[in-house]
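Milestone 3.1: sequence recovery, worked example.
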């Protein structure tokens, strides 16, 4: 297993910057383009289980969110977030970094970009 998994969107400059920092860290790295290799509900629940944030923060409130007719009430619980992101992976915040240190896992949303370096060290 890799030391670090990056759920990455190569079209996002913040995600590209986090990936560059991760590559420079020397950690054994797994990169997963979550748009081409989407997580299922169980995968998102596993991320949420170790996330250092409220699960609803994983969901982007953007034009697509509005077009789907979603509201904050639709992503209020971990199960709802997992269901929405499994069905609509483009709504996931990016990047998401998951540390695997053999004892426990931790995950962060790599926004703001300044949050990435302390997580990697």
């Amino acid at each position: 297993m890799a030391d670090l998994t990056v759920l990455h969107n190569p079209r996002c400059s913040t995600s590209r910057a986090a990936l560059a920092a991760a590559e420079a860290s020397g950690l054994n790295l797994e990169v997963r383009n979550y748009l081409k290799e989407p997580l299922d509900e169980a995968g998102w629940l596993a991320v949420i289980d170790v996330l250092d944030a409220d699960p609803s923060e994983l969901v982007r409130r953007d034009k697509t969110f509005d077009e789907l007719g979603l509201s904050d009430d639709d992503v209020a619980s971990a199960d709802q977030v997992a269901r929405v992101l499994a069905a609509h992976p483009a709504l996931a915040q990016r990047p998401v970094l998951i540390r695997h240190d053999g004892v426990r896992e931790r995950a962060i949303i790599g926004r703001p970009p300044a949050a990435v370096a302390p997580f990697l060290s």
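The helical segments are 13-24, 41-50, 63-67, 78-87, 116-120. The chain has a mean pLDDT of 96.
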